[in-house]
Amino acid sequence: MKYVYVVVSQTGSLVCRAISKFTGERYAHVSLSLEDDLSEMYSFGRVYACTPVIGGFVKESASFGTMKRFKNTEIAVLRIPVSDEKREELAAYLAAMYADRKRYHYSFRGVYRARKGIAYHRENYYYCSEFVRETLEKFGLADADEFGEVVLPAEFLKLRRGETIYEGRLHDFAAFAACTPFAPPALASPA
Asked: How far is residue 179 from each of residues 36, 78, 183, measured CA to CA in Å?
């Protein structure tokens, strides 16, 4: 069985802490991964780890970028089962977006309005939750009625097709994934 992973996170950065404080939610960011060890995740966020003011479509990992910089990043990981064909289609879609990433921009206006509960969309501009929601819906991995007009990262923890398999530090996940057969479905935490 193949899976798509939804990774909600809290890096502990000033921006993430501010978002969490405003929303009252533990997690402030969300990414998608096709890798069982989360070695590559896709989202909209910081292009450069040291500055939050330049955003766009990015690859993320515990090994590079923002999440490498914030070593105590806390995550919750959900998996959604997919067919081989659907996973290949999603992989091709994400690769094409990444290859053309200069065309996509971080939606600072969208995230500002989202914190006020106001939906705002402009073509090729996204913030993390908006991108993940749109991608999951596009590939039939989530239903539109699972989300409100504005979606926060923590809402992905309630996906009907999703199953939470891990909560803990991102830097501990690879070791967890290496020694954990991902069946039976049970919430796991590092020892």
From this structure: 12, 18, 12
Residue 77: strand pairing partners: 7, 166
List residues bridging with 4 in a β-sheet.
80
Q: What percent of the chain has pLDDT over 90?
A: 54
pLDDT digits (tens, 9 = 90+) for 83-108: 999 999 999 999 999 999 999 999 98
| 86 HSE (CA, 13 A, CB side) | 15
Mean pLDDT by 10 residues, the chain (191 residues): 93 64 74 94 82 84 79 92 96 98 92 85 94 97 92 92 93 81 49 46
Distance CA 156, CA 17 (A): 19
**Domain limits of the chain?**
2-179
Structure tokens that stand for 180 in this block: 């954990």
Q: CATH number of the domain at 2-179, please?
A: 3.90.1720.10
DSSP 12: -
Burial 80-101 (b: 16+ CB within 10 A, else e): bebeeebbeebeeebeebeeeb
pLDDT tens column, 31-47: 999 999 999 999 998 77
Burial of 19 (0-12, 13-18, 19+ CB in 10 A): buried
